[in-house]
Amino acid sequence: MSARTIDDAAQVFATPSAYADETTFHAALTHLRANAPVSWVEVPSYQPFWAITRHADIMAVERANDVFTNSPRPVLVTAEDDERQAATGVRTLIHMDDPQHRVMRAVGADWFRPKAMRALKVRVDELARIHVDKMLDAGGECDFVQQVAVNYPLYVIMSLLGVPESDFPLMLKLTQELFGNDDDEFKRAADDGDTMTALLEMFQYFSELTASRRANPTDDLASAIANARIDGAPLNDIETVSYYAIVAAAGHDTTSATIAGGMLALLQNPDQLQRLGDDPGLMATATEEMIRWVTPVKAFMRTAATDTVVRDTPVAAGESVLLSYPSGNRDEEVFTDPFRFDVGRDPNKHVAFGYGVHFCLGAALARMEINSFFSELIPRLESIELAGVPQHTATTFVGGLKHLPVRFSLK
C-alpha cells in the first residue's frame, strides 16, 4: 500500500473551534482541495479517518452506498462519544444502511413529498409572516439568530410533528445542546451530566409522546411514526424515538442556520440584497445559494465495507472517511467563483443535502421555509445593517451562526 497522505491542515475537521472561524477554516479547505484532497487524519481523542474534500469524490462515495456504509460511524464525534452512542442503541436514519434504511425512511416519506409540502405551505407562509412581525415588534434591533432564525423553523417542524407549543422551548434547548455540545455557550455544564444527557432527555420526551399517540392517534407526523408498522409489527421504542429525534433536531437546526447565514450573506453583499429585492423571481436560486453558502451540515462519515480506492488513494475495509460538504460546496472545479455569493447562481450543484439514498428527507421543507421567510422579509425591509459582531458555533457536525446582532427598519 502506498504511503498515506497526511496534511496538518486536515486537523481542522476534528477541531470544533475551527468551524467558528470561517475565514481560516475555508483557507484550510482550499489548501486541502489543491494539495491533499484525500488526507489521513489522526488527532487525540478521535478515531482516525480520511478527510475527503473534493466535490467529485464526495459524490462518488455517496453513490457507492454498498461500499461506504453509514454504520457504525455516521458522524464525527470523539472516540468516547462513539462508544456512548453505541451503548445507547441510537438508530436514527443517518445510522442506518439499506435495506433497513429504505424501509424506515418510508415511514415518514409521505409527509415530505410535494403534495404534503403544498398542503403545508399556507402554514409555513403564515409562520414566516408571524416571525417577520416579531422583528417589527422588536423595535428596530435584535439578535436575528436567537430571536428569529431559531424560532421560525422550530415552529414549523414542531407543528408538523404535533408537539404542543408549550413544549417548544424545551425542544429548542435540547436540539441546541445536541448539536452544540462542542460550543461553550450551548453545551451542558460539566456537573450536569455528559453530552448524551440531552439525547436521553429527548428520548424520554418522545417515549411519552409515542404512548400518547398510540392511545389517541391524531393527524400529525408523530402519530404516523408512533403507529407505523414494518412487516406487521410496530416500531420498537428505540426505533420510534430515534425517528422523532432526527426529525426534530435535523429539521430545526439546519434550516435555522441557513436562514441566519443567508441573512448575513445578504448583509455582506448589499448588491445581492438589492438584486433580490428588485427581482423576487430570483428567490428560488437565492435559496439554493444560501444553502450552498452556509452548508449547515458540515460533514457525514462513511465506513468502507471492503478495500476500495478514493482518488487513487487506497482505503482499507473498516477505515472511515469524512465527507466535507463545505469544501465540496466551494470546489473550484464545480462552481464558478465559488467564494462569491450569487443569488442568481445557476446551475448550483451543491451537496448540502447529501446525495444518493441518504439525500436529506426534509430538503423540500427546508427549501420552502427559507423561500417563504425571505419572500416575506425582503419586500418589507427598508434598511438593515450589522449592530455587532456575528458569532459562529463551535461544532464538527451541524452549525452556523449563533448570534447575529442587526439594526433594521421594516414596513
Automatic annotation (TrEMBL):
Pfam families: p450 (PF00067). GO terms for biological process: cholesterol catabolic process. Belongs to the cytochrome P450 family. Keywords: Heme, Iron, Metal-binding, Monooxygenase, Oxidoreductase. It comes from the Bacteria. PROSITE patterns: CYTOCHROME_P450. InterPro entries: Cyt_P450, Cyt_P450_B, Cyt_P450_CS, Cyt_P450_sf. GO terms for molecular function: cholest-4-en-3-one 26-monooxygenase activity; heme binding; iron ion binding; steroid hydroxylase activity. Its cofactor is heme. CDD domains: CYP142-like. Coiled coil: none annotated. This is Cytochrome P450.
